[in-house]
Every structure is written in C-alpha cells, then in structure tokens.
C-alpha cells in the first residue's frame, strides 16, 4: 500500500485573464504560482513511523504486538453478551499486564517499569485497539493505581502496588458523584474520624452524593479509592482519598451498595457502577496520606495549610489521566483516518475524468477537503501530545518530583497544557471519526468496518477526565491570572472578582501570553498592511496570527469581566455572559501551542523529503486553522478579504499536494492491520 | 414542566463608556438597546404544538399513542439478542400497520388512507420512537410498497398492495449494489428477457453487483423489488424494476443467495442483507411496467423515448423516501433537544450567581449558545419540511399526478427541494444529537438516557436515501441548468460541458435564483453601505443576505466551471476542483429556502405572544445562519467587521431572550414522555 500508484494531478492552467464582467469576484482555484517547479516528496513510511513513535518505539511496538495477538476482542465486542464481554476484557487486561505493558509508570520495586513517558506511550498506542480494554487499563492502572501511587505513602505502596500492577487486585476510582460531575470540591460523601475506634466512617448522605459512572465498580473492583469530605472532631478539612474494600472474593461487603450503570453508548466491556456507603468503617491507615494525616488521637496534620491548595495539589498529581485520554483520542482518530484514506483510494464513484471509468474518491476535491486537513491536524496534535507527555515525564520524574514545593509554576503549566490538549484531542477524535464514517458511506455503518465501535467508544472522551468545556475554562482562568491560583480551582465568582480588581492594562500584562505577543509586534509591522508582509507559508506569519488572536481574546475577556463587575453587575452573571469568549480564548491558546509544537518538530528535522512532506502538512494544518476562524481575523483587522480568499485557495492547493502522500501518511501511524478490519473497504489480499 | 420557573435574566447595565486604551476593541455583550421595553412572551404550549402538528394533528396523535403503547421496544433494543429484536421490531411494525398508521399513502381500495401528506406526517412522528421501527416501516411501506405503487400497474397493485399494507407480505427494495452506491444508473445486475419462456432471467454478474445494505432482506422479505439492467434481444434498455420472490414461508428460494450484513452501528432491529441472483426466472409480468413494457414476443415499449429520462422519471417517483428521511432526522433532533433542554434547567454546576447555590446549566451563556440556536434551527427545518411535504402531496395528489407529462418543472423543483432538505435535516440530526449528548455529560452516555440509540440509529441518515454530498451536487446541478435535465442525472462531464457551452452571463441569467436576486437588488441599495440600511432583525435584510450569497455562489461555480473548460482543462478535473463550491452553493440555496419557510410561516400568524416567540426564534435562526458564514459575507463585501460583531452580540442577546421560553419550546414538539426515558436527567415525579 505504501507505494500505491495515483494518477498525476491535473495539468496546470495558464494564469486566467480577469473576467471583465465581475473583475473583483473571480477567484481561481486552479492556478497556483507555488506549484511551478514543485517536486513531490517521496515519503519513507518506515522513517516517518520511527519519527512518530519517537523515543518509545519499543514500547509502542510491544503494545502493537499485544493488540494483534488479542485482535479477536474486536469481534467479541459484537458477539458476546455484556457480562461475558466484561470478563473477556478483564482477561485481556490481565494478560497485557503480564507483558509489562500496563505497568510502565510504576516503580520497578513493585514490578513496574519506572518510566512515566513509556506509560503514556503504551496507553496511547492501546487506543488502536478495542477501547473497552483501553479504558479498563486506564481505570485500573491510571486512576486506581495512580491514586495509590501519588496520594498514598509507602504503607499503601507496599500493601497494594505489586498486586495491582499484575491485575491480581482490581480497583476503582470513586470520585465523581451523580450531583457533582465537574465540581469535585463540592462532593457529598463524608468520612468521619472515630477517635475511639481509630477508624474512618464513610457515608453517602443522599442520592446526589452516590458515586456514579465508576469504572470497574459494577463487577470487578475489590478496592475503591473513595474521595470524601474528611471530618475530624466536627471540623471539615475538605476532600481526601481513602482506600475502601468493597468486595471480597467477588462478594459485595456489608454497608456497601453497588448498582450497575446499565448499558452505555459504548465501552460496554467496562463495568461502570454506582456506589453508596452506609457507615462503612476503614482503619485510620486507609487515608492516602501523602498530603495530609490524621493522628490516632484525632489531630489533623498537613504540610499544606490552605485546604483549597491542598485539595488541588492532590488533584494535580492525577494529571496523567488527562494526558493519556488526549493521546488516546488522537490515536483513535488515526485508526479512522487510516481506514477512510485507504478506502478512498480504492472506491470509485461516477465518471469524472474519463467517460469509461469512475473516479477514485480521493481525487475529488471535496473528498480531499474532508480528509486531508484532518490528517494534518492529527499530525499536529500528535506532536503537541508528544510535548505534553514529555513535560509530564519531566515534572514527575525530575529531581524533587512528587514533593510539595517542587516547581509549582511548571506543574500548573503542565496541568493547563494537559487540559487544553485533552479537550482538542478528544473533540478531534469525535469529529474525525464522524467525518471518516460518512466518507465511507453505508459501508462505514457496518460494525466490521470499525467506525461503529470507534464512534460509540470515544464519544465520552470529551466528557470524562474533565468535561472539555470545563477544562477550557480552567485553562482560561490560568491565563487570566498568570497561574496565580491552583489550576482546578474553578471559582467563577473569585475569578471574576480577581480580574475586576486589576486595571485592564495590568490584566493584559499579567497574562501569560503577553510576552510572546510582544515578539509578534516586533516581528510584524502594525497597521493595515501587517498581514501582507509575510507569505502564507511562512511559519512566522502563521504563528503570529495565532498569537495575536490569543492575546487579543484574553485581553477581551479580561476587559469584559472587569467592565461588568466595575459596573456593579453580579460577577456570576458577568461570567455567564462572557463564557463563550472565555472558552474561545482558551481554545485559541491551545491551538497556538499545537501549531508551535508542529512547527518546532518539523524545523528540527534534517533537510530532505520527510521534512518537505511534514512542512506541507504543517502548512495545511496552520492555514486550515486560520481559515476556520478567518471571520475573527477579518473582524479584528488582521486579514483582508482578498487575503482570506487566498488562504482558502492555498488550502485547496495544499490538499492537492498532500493527496499523493495520503496513504503513506496514514500508514506511518502504524496501526496494526488486524485493528483495521474492514475487509471489503480495504480489500486485503487484492 | 411547561410553567417551569426561572430566575429573571440579569439586570441591564448602562451603556459603557468606551475604553480609551483600546477604543475599537471594546465590544459589549451585556448592553443591548432592543432589550429596553422588551416584554417576554408567554408561550401557550398547546397552541404551539397545534401549530407545529398542522393539518395532520390527528395522524400525529395516532402515532404518538402507538409509540407510547409500544414503548417497551426502547428497552428491548438494549436487552434482546439481535435475532429476537428483529422479530420484535417486525411485530411492532405489523401491529402499527393494523392501526392504519403506516398505510396512509396507499389507495383506499387496498386498505390505505389515500393521503400522501398524512403518510409523511405519520412517518416523521415515528422518529420520536425506536428508529429500527421507523426504518423498517420505511423499507416496507415507503421503499417496497412505494415501488409497487409508483412503478407498477393495476396487476401489481391487485397482486400485492392489500397484503403489503397489512404487513402480511414483507418485501425489500433491492437497488443499491456494493460497487454502485450513489451511481444507480451504473448498476450491474442484469435482467435478460427470454422470449421463448416469456420470462426474465435475473443475474448478478459479479460481487460488485451484489445488492447490499438491503433492509428486510436478511430475515423477513418474501418479495424483492430488484433494479436491474434490462436486456431484450441483446439490446440494453437501462435500469428497470422487477418483482422477484426471494423467500417462500421463510425458506430462501433457489437461485437466490442471501447474506446478513452483520452487526451495524445502529438500527440493529432492521435485517439488512446482501442478495445475489443466479439466473432467477420471473414471469414477464414481474416487470413493474408503469413506464416501460416488454411484449410477449420481445418488443420493448415505453412512452418515454429517452432511456435516461425514463430511468430518472422512475427514480423521481420515489422522492417520498427522501422527504420522509429528512423529516425523521428533524424529529429525532427534537427528542434529543427535549431531553437536553429539560435536563439543563434541572442540573446545576458550580457556584456562579450565588455563593450558596450552584447555577442551573441553561443560565450559562455557553450552554445557551450550544442549545438554543439548535432549537431555533429545528423550528426552521420543521417549517421547511412542512413546505416540502405539502409540495409532495400536491404533486402526487393533484390532477394528473403520476402521469407522464404532468408538470415536469414542478417535479424537479420538488426533487431538488426534497434532496436539499434531506441533507440539511439529517446533518442537523447528527450535529444536534451530538451536542445534546455532550451537554448532558456522562449521563448522556448511558443508554437509558436515549442519546446512545439516537446517535447510533440516525448516523446513517446522512448516507441512505442518497448521500448528502451527492444530493447537494444534484441540487447545484439543477440550479446551474435551471432544471433542464433530469434531477438525478449526475453526469459531471455533461454538466461541466453544458455550463461551458454558455456565456457566463447566460449561465447566471439561467440560474433559478436570478429572478429572486433581482428583487434583492431592488430592495437594497448597492455599494458598501447596502448592508447598513436595514436592521439586523428585519427579515427582509436576513433573506436578502441569504439570497445574495446563493446567487453569488452559483454564479461563481458557473464561472469557474466555464473558465476551466474554456481553457482546455479536463471537464472532470475542473469539476473536482470546483466541487466544494458546488456543494456550498447548493447548501446556500437550501438555507435560503429554509429561512423563507420560517419567515413565511411566522408572518402568517395572528399578532400575539406566539408570533412574538416565533419571531425571536426566527431571528435567532437567521442570525446564527449568517453568523456561521460571516467570513464569506465579509469576503464578499456584504458585511463590515463592525456589523459582523454586532450580529454575534445579537445572537447572544436573542439566546438570553429565548432562554425563559426554552422548555415550552421543546415541550411543544409533543414527544411522548415515554419516548424520553432519562428518568434521572428529567427526574420524573419530582
């Protein structure tokens, strides 16, 4: 497939004579000056795949091998009952654990691999396969195991890590409550310290406080990490985490009630459940005490005085989950694009170029426009994800990692970046899989062609590990306050008041992007011509556009918030009215980070065809991004209507250049053939 | 729920003093002059529902009653095996047929209702329930029954209609082939006339020509209407339809091979299958001979000489299927919006206005922006659908209906309008259901909350009964050629050559929109100020914008096609490059029709609160539509950046005005409570 033959792109046409009847309306999609002398690069698929796999190629290949070995699970998902499929998924997870694949992030003394970066790489790659397996792995090793590792201390590690790394002990992560989806600090579950018994008593006070959507809870978990409001001697200390046994040998323990969440849109191999606790007693040592301790005699101790800060420091240690979900979304999109692209160079529809033969789908301009920018964006997000995964590894593996007092600013930047990338990566998955399904027509609707499961399973990615809209609000808050507060602390009243307390200029100067934008100003002249000085394919121009948008949007949000509050409006109402701008600003910020990552990675390559090919993709991504928001750039005087139209033409021209590379570009993702299924769409063996 | 209490919208603020630091950047989302003196209308839910139900209220209520009675099928879909669920769906369909609901479109002498409009209304309403039932009804009564009715003559009617109307005889519609999805004229199945035996011999020559995705084929159909290339005495006459028995008492007949399409993303209550014919013999009378006949001695006769025209006349009689699917998509969106909107006035998230209580989701600006324009668009599409259904009724029930020679232009306009509305209605369903699922967070992912089935089942609506992109190309072709050719005849080479043969001015003058736009020119002054003369809330302004866009886009496509061909480029290659403009033009055309329908319906109402409320919605829809494409309007000199920003502010302001009406607006859809399920999201009985 890698050397698939395609017909040459249609001949160039001479520059057209302007049409006198409508001189300013004639746009020409066919002629493109840059096409002259253009030589199509040859893509070395293996080299490109090595580049994408990066330093964790070996780990990724281990996962690919495991996926291929257990490929049957993709069929089992269609054919088994839910109960059987849950067992099957559990078995696959335990078998994969046996290869070391799922324990990369745990310390070696407990059977882990001691490499957080490798752990993210392994998880991401798992997204090429059945996503119930992925999510079950995420629940067991990421959420449950991660909480024991990050929030617990040696006692807990010694007690649980070795068994959970092998999958002998299954656990769940009981944070979310029915009535408290995104606002974790408002949880209702209570853990009261009984000084006489030296025990905590865990209680669910009402149905809004039942634990909900908890993966592994309905069937398999023996232990739960339960988040609850800690109460000691009548005083509340905020949310803390406790290790609570909920089953023993499969039997639900007394005081615990478990209900199955029932059938879901997808991920039915994961047993999501609801939990209620009716005065369940656990020993004092059940408190995961990395950040707080209750002494036997009932004294509450914590190295972090501020309860808010303490809570969000705890939450912050769980950032790896978001990094992983973002990466999984991006990789699920790769599966869909591989199938849709390969199928689009096989399927023919209508006579177009020749009266005797129908035209291959990917030679249609519209089909190129539908798929190729999505491939480009997938590459962009891949490199952005690489950056955030590397930062995660750095922050959690570097000197002093895990200690309170390690570089807080770096942690908040990481949390913000992880949140933004998760939001963009998972929305990209939803959109890409949908477009690929439609591009494959009726065949895309058959389960054997993979889109059914991909769509149903990934749909909740935009919601779990933080609802995307809420995450983007957090990103915006960090930008507005220059990361002054804890990342997760989504107090809208406080944020509006904080911003309102500053002079507008101060707000803008305090924003994290201000310094960056100063350099944009230095780079590009002001006034109406500033955007005409640079070529569309100049990465400095592309970046300057995204940086300008980002700063302008953040400044705009700050001004709006401040003006509303200054004028006596209720801060919450002001926030509500500005909310879409808040989210747009955070999105603009993350888009800039994504483009920067792509440009930087491409720039780092040695000259050659691979660099030429990735530059094409990078240009396609950058200009598609600007094109998508060209209205905003025009409204804000940074794009003339002439140049805006030129960008659309350039995007189409870039699509035509990327077209002959398309199959190589998706093959370089290295999705195992067994994971693609789609026997007829791809016609294996032909 | 209809009188749900909501807090008043936040107080107005005084006009802000322009911010000296950034005078041209200050936009104010809070202050809105029109707000002054605005009195919120009271929506009479029953009256609004009566308005939406229109002249077919009784039929719609019959379907609502039937849906409620068989509500258990929504649960069965989750709990039964595929084989059992298929039987269950079949039984429900037959039971519904017993109430007369599904036979509205058939002549009374065969047990039908003799009312095509009622038949569309019944089908649309069925989309409130399980969509396998809907699609099974569509296959049996719309496609199979419709083909017998429209393509057959009295012999076929007498033989089959009475039994198919009751569901005693189940049938399928075997048109689509694996290798010929959208290009029906290129089908491979052959029907050869054997003059000696006075029989047709039906043969599948290769796997690309197997019938594919055929609903009712895998389990239930006894008869198939098979589309095949007719060959008489060595001469091909194009595609014709034949009634072919494929099962007898459940046993597959000799020469017929049937394969199950296997699990699908959704609609698993419908038994889709593949069919191969190996020299299957049917009598001469098996040819559905409304438009062509083969005499016993092997003479081919048809009142329509041109084979192309004959074929597309046949296809044209099946337009009802598209009208129905468009309506089903719109109504499926209503279910999602009802759940998401009602849930958004119950669920709270984060403290915003008050430090003591979390804010209701729908009071957040972003949540309003996500849901309310979708409600507005649903109303717009509802009224547009009402128009196309009325036209269908008119064309097929009026004098001379069904006869060759009845007003061809009216038929082509109907076919075009049905295609465009189907595309917009089904894309709207996909987008709306997705947004509603995400707006309901994790709860939206549980099957009991309906989105799982809604999403999975409707996903293929954008593909079946004509892929949306292909349909929009057909619409554009009609516009470019002023409906000179048959609607379905998607010969891109011919179309490009046809356009190229005209002078550009001729092309534009020939387009169907030209006359309309002339009136825009008369209405609005030219030059740079034309768009500043009218208020944003003036429907004439809104319509003028959409009409301008439509004409300009069609003219642009014509010029591009013509220039490319004139310059010697391959017509197919020219088409491919212009394809995204072609589709954009068709979309612009249909958007204009939709807005016209909404404005006309609203204008026809007597003064009063209902009219005020629908005017708000209509403004919201119109301005959201312009806002979504504001880049184009700016690029083409029809929107200044100032006015563009004003439109975005107005959309937000309209959202705030619609917010208090939201629950009433969705309640007026009249989705039966049993169809909503979602016990926790909606908290019945609270």
UniProtKB/TrEMBL annotation, chains A, B:
Keywords: FAD, Flavoprotein, Oxidoreductase. It comes from the Bacteria. Residues 1-38 are annotated as: Disordered. The keyword Oxidoreductase applies. Residues 539-679 form the Acyl-CoA oxidase C-terminal domain. Residues 172-280 form the Acyl-CoA oxidase/dehydrogenase middle domain. Residues 58-167 form the Acyl-CoA dehydrogenase/oxidase N-terminal domain. This is Acyl-CoA dehydrogenase. It comes from Nocardioides furvisabuli. Belongs to the acyl-CoA oxidase family. Signal peptide: none annotated. It holds the Pfam family ACOX_C_alpha1. Residues 22-38 have a biased composition (Basic and acidic residues). Residues 316-480 form the Acyl-CoA oxidase C-alpha1 domain. The lineage of its organism: Bacteria, Bacillati, Actinomycetota, Actinomycetes, Propionibacteriales. InterPro entries: ACOX_C_alpha1, Acyl-CoA_Oxase/DH_mid-dom, Acyl-CoA_Oxase/DH_mid-dom_sf, Acyl-CoA_oxidase, Acyl-CoA_oxidase_C, AcylCo_DH-like_C, AcylCoA_DH/ox_N, AcylCoA_DH/ox_N_sf. Its cofactor is FAD.
């Amino acid at each position: 497939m890698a050397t698939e033959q395609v017909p040459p792109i249609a001949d160039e046409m001479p520059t057209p004579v302007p049409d006198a009847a409508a001189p300013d309306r004639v746009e020409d999609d066919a002629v493109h000056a840059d096409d002259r002398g253009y030589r199509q690069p040859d893509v070395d698929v293996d080299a490109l795949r090595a580049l994408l796999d990066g330093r964790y190629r070996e780990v990724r290949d281990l996962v690919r091998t495991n996926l291929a070995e257990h490929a049957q699970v993709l069929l089992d998902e269609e054919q088994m009952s839910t109960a059987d499929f849950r067992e099957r998924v559990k078995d696959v997870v335990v078998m994969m654990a046996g290869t070391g694949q799922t324990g990369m992030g745990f310390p070696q003394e407990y059977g882990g691999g001691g490499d957080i970066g490798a752990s993210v790489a392994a998880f991401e790659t798992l997204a090429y396969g059945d996503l119930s397996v992925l999510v079950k792995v995420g629940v067991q090793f990421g959420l449950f195991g991660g909480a024991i590792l990050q929030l617990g201390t040696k006692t807990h590690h010694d007690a649980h890590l070795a068994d959970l790394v092998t999958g002998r002990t299954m656990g769940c992560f009981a944070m979310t409550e029915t009535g408290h989806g995104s606002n974790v600090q408002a949880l209702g579950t209570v853990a009261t310290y009984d000084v006489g018994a030296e025990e905590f008593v865990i209680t669910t006070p009402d149905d809004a406080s039942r634990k909900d959507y908890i993966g592994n809870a309905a069937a398999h978990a023996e232990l739960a990490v339960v988040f609850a409001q800690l109460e000691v001697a009548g005083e509340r200390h905020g949310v803390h985490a406790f290790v609570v046994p909920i089953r023993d040998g499969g039997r639900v323990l007394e005081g615990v009630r478990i209900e199955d969440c029932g059938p879901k849109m997808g991920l039915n191999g994961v047993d999501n459940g609801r939990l209620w606790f009716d005065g369940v007693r656990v020993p004092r040592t059940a408190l995961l005490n990395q950040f707080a301790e209750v002494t036997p005699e009932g004294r509450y101790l914590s190295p972090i005085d501020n309860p808010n800060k303490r809570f969000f420091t705890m939450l912050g240690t769980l950032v790896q989950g978001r990094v992983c979900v973002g990466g999984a979304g991006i990789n699920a999109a790769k599966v869909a694009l591989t199938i849709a692209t390969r199928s689009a160079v096989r399927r023919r529809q209508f006579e177009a170029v020749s009266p005797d033969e129908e035209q291959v789908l990917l030679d249609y301009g519209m089909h190129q426009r539908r798929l190729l920018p999505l491939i480009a964006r997938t590459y962009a997000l891949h490199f952005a994800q690489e950056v955030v995964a590397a930062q995660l590894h750095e922050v959690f593996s570097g000197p002093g990692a895990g200690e309170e007092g390690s570089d807080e600013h770096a942690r908040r930047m990481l949390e913000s970046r992880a949140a933004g990338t998760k939001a963009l990566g998972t929305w990209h998955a939803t959109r890409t899989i949908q477009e690929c399904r439609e591009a494959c027509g009726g065949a895309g609707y058959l389960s054997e062609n993979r889109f059914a499961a991909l769509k149903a399973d990934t749909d909740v990615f935009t919601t779990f590990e933080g609802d995307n809209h809420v995450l983007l609000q957090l990103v915006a808050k960090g930008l507005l306050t220059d990361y002054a507060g804890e990342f997760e602390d989504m107090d809208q009243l406080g944020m509006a008041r904080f911003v309102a307390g500053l002079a507008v200029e101060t707000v803008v100067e305090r924003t994290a992007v201000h310094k960056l934008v100063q350099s944009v100003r230095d780079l590009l002249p002001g006034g109406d011509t500033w955007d005409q000085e640079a070529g569309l394919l100049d990465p400095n121009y592309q970046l300057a556009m995204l940086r300008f948008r980002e700063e302008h949007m953040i400044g705009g949000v700050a001004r709006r918030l401040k003006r509303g509050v200054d004028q006596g409006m209720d801060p919450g109402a002001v926030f509500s009215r500005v909310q879409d701008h808040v989210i747009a600003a955070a999105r603009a910020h993350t888009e800039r980070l994504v483009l920067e990552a792509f440009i930087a990675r491409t720039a780092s390559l040695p000259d050659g065809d691979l660099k030429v090919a990735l530059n094409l993709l990078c240009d396609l991504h950058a200009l598609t991004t600007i094109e998508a928001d060209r209205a905003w750039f025009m409204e804000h005087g940074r794009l003339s209507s002439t140049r805006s139209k030129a960008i659309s033409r350039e995007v189409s021209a870039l699509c035509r250049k990327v077209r002959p590379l398309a199959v190589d570009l998706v093959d370089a993702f290295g999705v195992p053939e067994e994971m693609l299924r789609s026997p007829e769409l791809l016609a294996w063996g032909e």
